[in-house]
Structure formats: structure tokens, C-alpha cells
Amino acid sequence: MTPPPSSPPAGPVASPEPLVRFRLRITRDGQVAVGPGKIELLEAVQRTGSITAAAKSLDMSYRRAWLLLDELNACLKAPAVDSAQGGAHGGGSRLTEAGQELVRLYRHVEHTAERACAADIERLKDLLAR
Amino acid sequence: MTPPPSSPPAGPVASPEPLVRFRLRITRDGQVAVGPGKIELLEAVQRTGSITAAAKSLDMSYRRAWLLLDELNACLKAPAVDSAQGGAHGGGSRLTEAGQELVRLYRHVEHTAERACAADIERLKDLLAR
């Protein structure tokens, strides 16, 4: 049986369980060269095959996505995104090998960090109120 | 010999060496319960012995520091900061045992993460332009 849609949830909708997130930022001259926002954007380009669709999926303007990718490409030895000019689909975009390597390494670092610190993170959570 | 102060530096003033930082955030219901800003503030209280001096050393208003600490204390089983009422020095503040443990664990987690990921972080840096 589906509960009646009018009945309020018994508890808070969001989980009260604390969420632990590692964020890795590589800065140079005080500017973020690589950070979580750019990595999410690269993953969205990889998933959707275009900057327009990637921006839309992240609720970001095309202009902002383009500027972030331009900034990122300028920081790298080789660009992370390759945009086809024209073509049947109006020119899609995809990650270069360097872009794929960047995403892979970044996510691997986060994952390794979470595993290496699991015990201390549990202790940190233990300091939080229920 | 000291170079003449009027001569411009030969290269950029800031080091071009990329800086890698891990940031750990513990969120609950979308709010940051523990993050780098609050930990820095606790360390400043520990160093200076008062919220006023801590706020000043971080270029933060007393009001903002107080609100951050209040928010933090509300997230914890036991408060992180203990403020003396009155007294010869107008009431200093210091970290409780829980506050000290929080700072210690947080910094230990960052340090462990950086060590565990050192090789991948070097690979990430290798993708950056010189």
C-alpha cells in the first residue's frame, strides 16, 4: 500500500547521518587549478558528450562551463577536453587522454584518502551529537 | 648585496609550484558541521586564548567567530570551546578536551591522506603545465 501523499514524513526527510567528504584542490598562485567543481564538469562532459549538455546537467550556464574548462586547459600540459568543430551533431566534446587521466587520478586520490583515514573519520564522527 | 628595491622581480612573485590541499568536510543535512574554517578558528582560540584575539588573527569579525563556534558546539556531543565568565582578563576562552581532540583528529586525517596519496598527487602535478 502506498501511504497517502498528504501525510507528513515521520522524521526529517534528509538523513541525519553525517557525510564525510574529502576535497582535493591543487592551487597555483592562489588560483584553483584543479578542484572538485572542474572534475565534476569533466565527468559530465564524459557522460553527456557535449559541454552544453554537461553544463545543463550541472545546472550551470554554458558560459560558466566554457570558462572553467578554458581555465583548466590553460593549467594543463595538454588540454583535458577536445571539442569537435561542426559535424552532424553540431560538434560534441569529449575528454582527451589527459582529461581522462586527470579524472581517474583525482577520484582515486579521494578514494585512497577515505580508505586510509577510515578509523580516524569514525572517531571524528563519534564527537558529533546524535 | 641587497638588490635595489626599485627593480622589478625577474619572474612572478608567487611561487609557480602547485600547492595540493586536502580539505575534509563533515556535513549533516547539507550544513557543514566540521570544516577547515572552523578548525582554523579553534586553532586560533588555542593559540591566542580568546575568541576576540582569534577572530582578529584570522581577519574575521568577533560576531562571525562567535556564530561559527556556536554552530560547531551545537553539532558536537560536548562543546569544543570553554569561555570563562569575567575574571581579571575579561574572560578568556580555551579548547575543551573535545575541542582539542577534534583539531588533533582533523589534522591527523589530512596528514594521513596526504601521505597515503603522495604518489598519485605527484602524477596529478605532472599533468600540470610548468
Short description:
Chain A is α+β, with helices and mostly antiparallel strands and 130 residues long. Helices cover 48% and strands 15% of the residues of chain A. Chain A has a domain at 26-79 and 93-126: Winged helix-like DNA-binding domain superfamily/Winged helix DNA-binding domain (Arc Repressor Mutant, subunit A), CATH 1.10.10.10.
Description of the structure:
Two copies of one chain form a homodimer. The first copy, chain A, is α+β, with helices and mostly antiparallel strands. Helices cover 48% and strands 15% of the residues of chain A. Chain A has a domain at 26-79 and 93-126: Arc Repressor Mutant, subunit A. Chain A contains five helices and four strands; from the N terminus they run ββαααββαα. In chain A, the strands form two sheets. A two-stranded antiparallel ribbon of chain A has the order 1-2. A two-stranded antiparallel sheet of chain A has the order 3-4. In chain A, strand 1 (19-28) and strand 2 form a beta hairpin. In chain A, helix 1 (36-48) packs across helix 2 and helix 2 crosses helix 3 (62-75). The two termini of chain A are 32 Å apart. The model of chain A is unreliable at 1-9 (pLDDT under 50). The interface between A and B is large, with 45 and 46 residues.
